Amino acid sequence: MAGVGVSGAGGSGDSGVGGGAQVAGAGGGPAVVAASLRNAAAVADWLAPRVAAGATVALVPAGERWPDGSLRPAAEDLWGAGAVLAGLPATLLADPVATSPEARVAVAAWRSVADRLPAELAACAGGRELADLGFADDVAVAAQVGASGVVPLLVDGEFRPAPVM
Predict the structure, then answer these.
(1) Mean pLDDT by 10 residues, the chain (165 residues)
(2) How many CA atoms are closer than 13 Å to the CA of 39, on its beta-carbon side?
(3) Which of 61, 80, 113, 132 sits a CA distance of 20 to 30 A from 6?
């Protein structure tokens, strides 16, 4: 899962969002939404008008933990962030100054697996871990790109469906 922080032009604060997001504050703080492969298009649609209006967006692939508790990158979360970014209008991604190298890498990573996502998701460390625990069906569900139109927005410490613009 990728956490997405959105701060309006002149908004206050940065958003650091991991697997579990924290409220970034009311009254001008960044909006925090949760994205996955299943709702990447919906999140991109929600972000597009905000980015066009000058909002700053930070996508943070949540990552996982190794058995020893240390952090490990999660390819599936990078793919999710890339899927969100790839869903934005090309004009919003065209400026290499406004788009970070990390964002471009996420988009490239997503595009490199998009046509064979179910197999790649099953083969990545997170997919193998879930399958080993008996949750292979969950991996198949996670591979259903675009299956959800809900954009979870963090409000008062809880994720709620974001209002439609």
Answers:
(1) 52 30 47 94 94 87 88 93 93 77 93 98 95 97 96 93 83
(2) 20
(3) 113
